User: Fold this.
Amino acid sequence: MTRFLDSFYTERSGVAEVRSVCEKARSFFREITVGDVGIDGFIEVFEVGHPTGVMAGVQIKSGDSYVNEQGTKFRFVSDQNHFGYWARCSVPVIGIVHSPNHGRSVWLDLTGMCDDKRIVEGPYSETIEYTDETDFTPSTLLSRIVPTILKYTHQRRTLWQVQQLVRPQNQKADLLVPSLEVSDDREDAWYELIGTLFGVSSEAEIADAGYRLSWYFPAVSKKLQDALLERLSRADDASIARILGAVYYFVEMGADKAAELTIDLLSYVPDISGRVERLVRERKMPSAHLETAIQTVEYLDEEFKHELRREVGLTQRQRDEKQ
Assistant:
């Protein structure tokens, strides 16, 4: 006869508790039923009974092994990979620890815990005192958790940032295979990467997007390839300068292969060498990026640009210092 293990009921009790609290708070909980990797579901924020589209990921720990006998101290246990994952999530993430025997739960702000020091060194577990503030109830969901969710809505780390953060000190960056698969059934991810590449984002975010677009370009459908090529054909000077900033970011990180992949994307921009040379001459980029921009032209044209360096005042000594 088929029999469920006790652990199944223990895990389900945590999910049921979260769903119940959300319903009482007139919010909505969407459970992930297949293949979760650190998030068990999403809570959507409601305003006056209306969905807002603002979400928070939820990681649920359920069981009495996470709580002391008195039910006054709860323990959230995880690992480095999960903290790195939560740090780069595009939505804020909260943790919930549920005790079936005590019939109570606590919550904690996982996104707020994902600072650099913790990601690198830990600790990867946290003890939470059961108080009126940490008790996971409809009241605290509305008064404390929702404001926390709204605070982090636009904050995230990129995969590249987290990988570099946990990389051993002084180790040259290797060419890492991106973990985000982009295929025909993930078109939204591809278009989001294009938007990031040409958006007003940080150097690290543009670098991460350019790296992944270049890596997957040969494998995606012609439709997705054409979408990227069309956008590259319309690249304005500001976009080119920002992408050159991403190349500079990779060079500074010692990730030469990633820099080359990003330059390969730029090669699809019409007259890219001439445009970059003009941007260099007109100094339409930070001074620190000039050498990288000239190296980009040299990589594309396969020849040294001594005259261009002289025009912008970059001597061999200055070049050596930058390298």
Q: What stands out?
A: DSSP finds 15 helices and seven strands in the chain. Confidence is low (pLDDT under 50) at residues 1-5, 173-184, 316-323.
